[in-house]
Amino acid sequence: MPLKLYTNYIEDFITENEILELQPEVNKAHEKLHNGTGEGSDYLGWIDLPEAYDKDEFEHIKVVAKKIREKAEILVVIGIGGSYLGARAAIEFVKSQNYNLLCKDTPKIIFSGNSISSTALSEVVDMVEGKDFAVNVISKSGTTTEPAISFRVFREMLISKYGKDGAAERIFVTTDKEKGTLKKLADSEGYETFVVPDNVGGRYSVLTAVGLLPIAVAGIDIDKLMQGARDARNAFKNSDIKSNDCYKYAAIRNVLARKGKTVEMMVSYEPSFAMMNEWFKQLYGESEGKNGKGIFPASAIFSTDLHSLGQYIQDGQRILFETVVIFKKPNKEHMIKMDPDDVDGLNFLAGKEMSYVNRKAFEGTALAHNDGGVPNIVLEAECMNEYELGYMIYFFEKACGISGYILGVNPFDQPGVESYKRNMFALLGKPGYENEREVLERRIRK
Ligand code: PA5
């Protein structure tokens, strides 16, 4: 079994019976997902995606990824939120958080358009200056401000460097199949396009061209990734909590939340999991945080953050639970050597592998946090490869859908995201927002 759920570090806080009592609610959530009878049912395409993906486009992604690998030293991936986090998380998970420093036969991959920072944008401009680069701009709506600002800059750079036709060979657009300004521009300029399916929302889109193109450019085997997701889809098809770890995880989160544990910290002992934490936070935050409900998604990398957040986790407000993702094998092992002088007193570790030390750090921390009142859900995977990643992505997506319906929210919309945009556009003087502008400016002056 690729990803296994362990409950031994939650036993002091909830009983197996309390989890099983949620079976009727899990059944209802399962029916909503599988029969499309719940809110947000227009966005359930991700459920069958690992089987029912567009095979022609999938092959086309591989062809284009190869072309980009051959032509470009750098791929600039422009996108934000669901059009950014999955690809970056996958590349760092399978390759490394230091991918750009370590890659040899594949292009560097630099992410842009995920903020409105002029410093961040200018730094990427400096990095591609004088280099052969290509751009993959990703936006389902095709109208999002952050990537649009960034795309203006890199499109202009490509046109002035290679001319309009040369730029068209280096710009790849992932967007809606027919709507949006990006699609219109791509069609008029002859940019190659990839589709974000209508029925897959941004944060559930990593297994579409949104994630797959950059992931494939990084030299990651997307067939194995989809195989992992396919196996997870088959493993988590039935609604019985006893045999479905994905649904059990969703149930446990809700039982803990009802007992006042309303903050979930996603934790890993592997630094290359840091962007998976960010992907998880978007998936769960945007899916569950609405109507005054939701478990707040936080994250940490241990043991790093035990030296910063550790105090709070051990001893602060008792509202936390942790979900710890551990791996049986590290991607690279390191044996600790004997030091004849033993100046640091660490010779008792000589001959031990670092992964063993990391494991003991996890076990000791889980027990300490349990003593401090923090339940730990544990998810164990074999290693950090494509297959395990595909399996894990599907696990978290499905658990999110189930958990959101148990919470009583629509897990597939994000109405709250619009509020900041309205205010920002009004303050920037965008046509159509004149009325709001005056009111907002008065509030700012106060
Ligand atoms: O999950 C979501 O829907 C959002 O986070 C979007 O992915 C994000 O806002 C970017 O939207 P778009 O792809 O339309 O540019």
Give a concise summary.
This protein is an alpha/beta fold. The protein is built from 18 helices and ten strands.
Structural features, described:
The protein has 446 residues and is α/β, with parallel strands linked by helices. Helices cover 49% and strands 13% of the residues. The protein has 18 helices and 10 strands. It has helices spanning 16-20, 23-35, 49-52, 55-71, 85-94, 99-102, 118-128, 145-168, 181-189, 209-217, 222-235, 245-258, 274-288, 310-315, 354-371, 386-407, 417-427, 434-445, and strands at 3-6, 74-78, 108-112, 133-139, 171-175, 192-195, 263-268, 296-301, 320-327, 376-381. The strands form 2 sheets. It has a 5-stranded mixed beta sheet, sandwiched between helices. A 5-stranded parallel beta sheet has the order 3-2-4-5-6, sandwiched between helices. Helix 2 crosses helix 16, helix 5 runs antiparallel to helix 13 and helix 17 (417-427) crosses helix 18. The protein is globular, with a radius of gyration of 23 Å. The chain starts with a strand and ends with a helix. The model has no long low-confidence stretch (mean pLDDT 97). Bound molecules: 5-phosphoarabinonic acid. 5-phosphoarabinonic acid binds next to loops.
